Amino acid sequence: MPRKPIIGVIGGGTTASPEGLALAEEVGFLIARADAVLICGGLNGVMSAAAKGAKRGGGLTVGVLPTGNKADANVHIDVPIATAMNTARNLIIVRTADALIAINGSFGTLSEMAHAFDQGKAVFALRTWPLDKAGVDDSLYVRVGTPREAVDRAIEYARNAIPKERSGPDFAP
Amino acid sequence: MPRKPIIGVIGGGTTASPEGLALAEEVGFLIARADAVLICGGLNGVMSAAAKGAKRGGGLTVGVLPTGNKADANVHIDVPIATAMNTARNLIIVRTADALIAINGSFGTLSEMAHAFDQGKAVFALRTWPLDKAGVDDSLYVRVGTPREAVDRAIEYARNAIPKERSGPDFAP
Amino acid sequence: MPRKPIIGVIGGGTTASPEGLALAEEVGFLIARADAVLICGGLNGVMSAAAKGAKRGGGLTVGVLPTGNKADANVHIDVPIATAMNTARNLIIVRTADALIAINGSFGTLSEMAHAFDQGKAVFALRTWPLDKAGVDDSLYVRVGTPREAVDRAIEYARNAIPKERSGPDFAP
Amino acid sequence: MPRKPIIGVIGGGTTASPEGLALAEEVGFLIARADAVLICGGLNGVMSAAAKGAKRGGGLTVGVLPTGNKADANVHIDVPIATAMNTARNLIIVRTADALIAINGSFGTLSEMAHAFDQGKAVFALRTWPLDKAGVDDSLYVRVGTPREAVDRAIEYARNAIPKERSGPDFAP
Questions:
Q1: Cβ atoms within 10 A of the Cβ of A159, count?
Q2: Which of A69, B36, C60, D163 has the fewest Cβ atoms within 10 angstroms?
Q3: In CATH, what number is assigned to the domain containing residue C86?
Q4: Are C150 and C46 in contact (CB under 8 A)?
């Protein structure tokens, strides 16, 4: 059986708008309902709202923290990952997610979108940086209009990215 | 409600002995039975055996990979974390675990033990490097004799390390 | 005496244009002539051209590599830094540079610019991503027209960023 | 022409003894006299003493910092590398050095030695952790008695590790 899809939600911490937070919570809820795992930066704003939504939907939440202190994770995170690597943790979120949804966000989010593109991974963009205007191709920067569209498309994208068969090492003592 | 304890199992990949693998599987099983999350390096040997045991025990398994490819995770990993940071991922395992159990292992395991001590975190040592002989204090390097002793002591250690109350940011739109 | 300024040159590897490479070599030359240290990603394209220019100017070149193999550095690098952290090395370049000059470049360069902005650090932009069109403020994204303008402004920016007095620990046995 | 050897000096910060600091300064001096580059952690204690010695010897000093603030480097560092990756910077020092000399040191130094062994790289050990007693082979853990012996052997080891010809990409517009 393939593993569950892992959907990354990236976006503003202190800079998210009330609308952005509401979108993020709905996105998190729908990710959980799709039986996918939520991964995010583990802190406040969009990260906390998405995790809250995912918990309401009965899902699993992973927060990849910039600090080495798991107590920095928001209260909706099940599995805090303590990196102590500051914003280098952004790359771990991007690499680990099978698909990414961006909501609002400032330069940290911009960096995550750039790393995603650099890895050939699409970002589903919901009220965030208009990178199409800077020349990013619409196969990578995909504007979406609603949480439902964001999650449906991200899940479909993720399912295509996940190998049908597990290929890693097994263990047979 | 406090989050679940996260127990790290570190040890040999290709270098683990058949005995070490059997110990690791039992350790993983007992971690799951204690309702704790298993974190490991996600690859083969002790990492795979512990994850197999944890799945048999009904637990959740997190594998922090040195590569950027989640398909490198062993087949017992629920949540692969793709770091693409090579052995710098060792530090993420050590920081994220509330307590660590070491089984067999070569220099990678030795590095993880050193990082744990550096962070003031004990390692419960089951047939691994005899660091007491090199002068590491027995409050940090704790020899244990069985998987049961390793897991019981690690769980107790972890429970003491986890704050009773969540203190991270909440979200209330 | 304050330390020398460190100027980061970021830009395309395989994607740089012949014009971009010529600009990069001139930028590197002028950095060296200004008695500043060049830091870059250590590989090919803009990274190699800038380093070649800096050596022609008699300067010191540092290349922060994504791999763990120093032999991957281009032949103009004096000090290869082997990270084995893949694109997480981009952040080290951005943090270490006192000022950044971007020339051409694809998504890796875009990520470096985003990290610079996230750290409040300006990027002097020479034929690269038009991030002003995506809404980045012109105090951070600074369009320049020539290598001379890029280096003059970067050096001035760097000198303002470097403390006049060294404040780190000394050693007096 | 091959690049200069890069010799890493690792050891105690606040925990170094007066004897250890004096040894480190002499080691740094001899590294510079051998026309090699010194790399270290950039902070205090052994790191500062070795850098002071290298500057007295007319050498180049690189400090790979755990923080993102270059002003944290000791006053003898020419090129501070700001990682903001906490102790993950230890691995960068180990990977970048062609050979390593350890002097005194606590668990951070122990982690660096373990990472060196993991990479198949020898450590020349001067009054530091007695890892031979824990079973590390003497081809990797090499006890030395004096700064002169440490540096002579490290330089020889480094010269054998550096390719005679540069093989990285060139640039020819």
A1: 15
A2: D163
A3: 3.40.50.450
A4: no
Nearest by CB: C168 against D25, D75, D166: D75
Answer whether D68 sits within 8 Å of C166, measured CB to CB.
no
Residue whose structure tokens are 């919570």: A25
Mutate to test the interface with B, among A81, A91, A94 (most CBs of B within 10 A): A81
B172 pLDDT exceeds 90? Answer: no
What's the rounded Cα separation, in Å, for the pair C18 and D173? 7
Q: What is the DSSP letter of D15?
A: T
CB-CB neighbors (< 8 A) of A173 in chain B: 18, 21-22, 25, 49
Does D168 map to a domain? no
Q: Which chains, if any, share at least 3 CB pairs under 8 A with chain B?
A: A, C, D
| Inter-chain contacts counted by CB atoms under 8 A, chains B and C | 15
Instruction: Say if B59 falls within a structural domain.
Output: yes
Half-sphere exposure of A108 (CA within 13 A, CB side): 24
Please list every residue in chain B whose beta carbon sits closer than 8 Å to the beta carbon of residue C108: none
Q: Please give the order of strands across the beta sheet that includes A61-65.
A: A79-82, A61-65, A37-40, A6-11, A99-103, A123-126, A141-143
Chain C residues in contact with A133 by the CB 8 A cut-off are: 133-134
Contacts of D88 in chain B (CB under 8 A): 85, 88, 91
| Residue contact C114–A118, C-beta within 8 A | no
Domains in chain D, number = 1
C113: its two tokens: 């610019």
Residues spanned by the domain of C60: 8-161
Q: Per residue in C42-74, pLDDT tens?
A: 999 999 999 999 999 999 999 999 999 999 999
Set of chain C residues whose Cβ sits within 8 Å of the Cβ of A117: 107, 110
**A110·C114 Cβ contact <8 A:** yes
- Cα–Cα distance measured from residue A128 to residue A146, given in angstroms and rounded to the nearest whole number: 12
Amino acid D78: pLDDT: 98
Distances (CA, A) of D16 to B101, B133, C171, D105: 30, 21, 12, 6
Other chains touching A, judged by 3 or more CB pairs under 8 Å? B, C, D
C139 domain-assigned: yes
Q: Cα(D64)–Cα(D96) distance, rounded to whole angstroms?
A: 10
Beta strands in chain B (DSSP E): 6-11, 37-40, 61-65, 79-82, 99-103, 123-126, 141-143
Q: C104-143: per-residue pLDDT in tens? A: 999 999 999 999 999 999 999 999 999 999 999 999 999 9
Banded pLDDT at D171 (limits 50, 70, 90):
low
DSSP state of C41: -
CA distance A98 to A109: 17
Sorted by sequence, the CB contacts under 8 Å of residue A160 that are 6+ apart come out as: none
Q: Do D81 and C92 meet the contact criterion of CB atoms below 8 Å apart?
A: yes
- In-domain check, residue C168: no
Please report residues of B whose CB lies closer than 8 A to that of D129: 134-135
Q: CA dist A158 to A11, A110, A122, C33, Å? A: 19, 21, 10, 50
